[in-house]
């Protein structure tokens, strides 16, 4: 741990461990939320579909992908510090809309959760 102006600052390793713990906590909360949706819907006779995506981009309105693309165009690479722990599979907003329509039209798609991903994985 480092000190700066009298404040404790995490080392990069501690920071990455903290981020990993936060990601796991968020994933656990999302998992519980999905279970609650399923239980509530079943109790009320409602069919449900959950579509999951790690990252949605498109139409130039997303801040993260646009910024990453700008840095890559300028420097030819994008730096990542530490160990990358998860998969990042961006999906275009149009493809998400098509997946929503397809899921609503498919009678066998109900009461399930689906991961939406593109054919590319950012590494």
Automatic annotation (TrEMBL):
InterPro entries membership: NAD(P)-bd_dom_sf
Domain of life: Bacteria
Name listed for the protein in its UniProt record: NAD-dependent epimerase/dehydratase family protein
Species of origin: Pseudomonas helleri
């Amino acid at each position: 741990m480092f000190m700066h102006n009298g404040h404790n600052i995490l080392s990069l390793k501690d920071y990455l461990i903290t981020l990993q713990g936060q990601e796991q906590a968020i994933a656990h909360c999302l998992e519980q939320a999905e279970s609650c949706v399923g239980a509530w819907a079943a109790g009320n006779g409602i069919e449900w579909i959950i579509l999951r995506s790690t990252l949605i981009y498109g139409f130039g309105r997303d801040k993260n992908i646009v910024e990453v693309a700008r840095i890559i165009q300028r420097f030819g690479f994008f730096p990542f510090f530490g160990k990358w722990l998860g998969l990042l599979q961006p999906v275009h907003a149009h493809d998400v809309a098509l997946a929503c329509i397809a899921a609503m039209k498919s009678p066998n798609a109900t009461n399930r959760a689906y991961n939406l991903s593109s054919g590319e994985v950012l590494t």
